[in-house]
Write a structure and sequence with these properties.
With 330 residues, the protein is an alpha+beta fold. It has five helices and ten strands. Helix content is 35%, strand content 23%. A hairpin with a 2-residue loop joins strand 6 and strand 7.
Length: 330
């Protein structure tokens, strides 16, 4: 009996030793696994943080680029609006004939030829008289010359709430303006007009006599200078968060530029997202972003940044979105 007890005690001790070794091994393995899992998690967190910072910096860079390009457009428009020969012709004849309008259009073509690339190759340049009649157009299109535009937003600058028009002295813009979206005809591309007032020289008119409006019309999507693809999988888009009336409906968050958008087509942003972005005053982070041009395809993360314009408060409604795909096509 004693020998049996001793034998089983030895077996028990061996079992205990083996169990202790197994527990120690498992503990060490678990600790090693936890260590490497922690390192992997930290590496993933650092990579995600770096990606987020990269997207945010890209959004800030793109917003600054949009701002500088638009300010350059305003500078060119104001430079052309101050051209002495253009002003002289407008002062000498406020109600030109069709032949005189074509002559003025030729002069406008000469003045603006060197600036087309700087303003993004617009659909056309145009000039309206102080009473709202289009008296010059480059190029000259069907029914452009002589068209009455005093009721258009690009002339009066009051948005969709068109004022009652005084035919002899209609209300007009007094500063650079970006218009409501419009089409010149039913099949034409969706456009916005960028306009500036034309003033008589201060020395001749202390009261700053208003002579008319100079403008360019630009198709949606025509921000050709933007690097709309930064890196593989990234996209840049520009959105106008202002309320715009289009086809009798108010839209907030109309897409202005996107690498895959069809020029002239309306792409409204999701209204809850538009409201979220309106409340932001600086860079903002989005998860599960839905691309308005290719919805339901890939999953995106995105960084946003408002576009600041030092010369025109109305452009505070513009925002840049830089998105990155984090999942292959479903």
């Amino acid at each position: 009996g004693l020998r049996w007890l001793r034998h089983h005690r030895n077996v028990a001790l061996m079992v205990i030793a083996a169990a202790t070794l197994l527990i120690t091994t498992l503990t060490a393995t678990s600790a090693i696994s936890t260590y490497y899992a922690s390192r992997e998690h930290r590496a993933l967190m650092l990579a995600e943080s770096a990606r987020n910072r990269g997207l945010t910096l890209a959004a800030q860079f793109a917003a600054d680029l949009v701002s500088r390009q638009m300010v350059e457009r305003w500078n060119v428009l104001q430079l052309v609006a101050a051209d002495s020969t253009l002003i002289e012709q407008m002062q000498s004849n406020s109600r030109p004939s069709q032949a005189e309008m074509r002559e003025l259009s030729n002069r406008l073509a000469d003045i603006t030829r060197e600036y087309n690339e700087l303003v993004g190759d617009p659909v056309r340049w145009f000039v309206c008289s102080a009473t709202g009649q289009q008296i010059a157009s480059v190029p000259v299109g069907p029914d452009t010359l002589g068209r009455w535009s005093a009721g258009e937003d690009f002339f009066h600058g009051l948005g969709s709430e068109a004022p009652e028009v005084d035919v002899d002295a209609p209300r007009h813009i007094t500063a650079p303006h970006r218009s409501q979206p419009f089409r010149e005809d039913e099949q034409g591309p969706l456009q916005i007009a960028l306009t500036v007032p034309i003033w008589a020289p201060a020395g001749e008119a202390p009261d700053r006599q208003f002579l008319g409006v100079l403008g360019i019309s630009v198709s949606f999507g025509a921000f050709h200078e933007l690097p709309l693809h930064l890196r593989a999988g990234e996209r840049i888009m520009v959105v106008d968060l202002g309320e715009r009336v289009w086809e009798d409906q108010r839209h907030s968050g109309l897409l202005l530029a996107h690498p895959e958008m069809e020029r002239g087509k309306v792409y409204p942003l999701d209204q809850s997202l538009a409201a979220e972005l309106k409340s932001q005053t600086g860079p903002h982070w989005l998860t599960d972003f839905q691309d308005p041009v290719t919805p339901g395809g890939r999953e995106w993360i995105a960084a946003t940044c408002p576009v600041q314009f030092p010369t025109d408060d109305q452009f505070s409604t513009w925002v840049v979105i830089v998105s990155e795909s984090y999942q292959d096509e479903r």
